[in-house]
């Protein structure tokens, strides 16, 4: 899949290929439609934020809006490394999703 990939701490994300995630038990695979490049996203991607997993390479992005596999539109947040919201697909737990109207 295409994504904003961070190769190492302190490096800028680069548009490129990354493995397509497979939802594990207890996860939703979200087809991402929008994601912001926020200060939190930048800080986590650099490895400077306390919530950064420090796993590289990784996909940047902390939250976004997308579609679940059954077609529900959701806001989602805080995917686990190495996957992030600035990608075509993002796996997250259902409790990290909020259904939003069309």
Q: According to CATH, what is the class?
A: Alpha Beta
- Classify the beta-strand content into a percent band: 35-45%
Form type: globular
Question: CA-to-CA gap between the ends?
Answer: 25 Å
State the helix count.
1
* The CATH topology: Quinone Oxidoreductase, Chain A, domain 1
The CATH fourth-level homologous superfamily? Medium-chain alcohol dehydrogenases, catalytic domain
Work out the number of β strands: 8
Textual characterization of the structure:
The protein is globular. It is mainly beta. The model has no long low-confidence stretch (mean pLDDT 90). It has a single domain (2-99), classed as Medium-chain alcohol dehydrogenases, catalytic domain (Quinone Oxidoreductase, Chain A, domain 1, Alpha-Beta Complex), CATH 3.90.180.10. The chain contains one helix and eight strands, in the order βββαβββββ. It has one helix at 39-46; strands at residues 2-6, 14-17, 28-35, 58-59, 63-67, 73-77, 89-92, 97-99. The strands form two sheets. It has a five-stranded antiparallel sheet with strand order 7-3-5-6-8, with no helix packed on it.
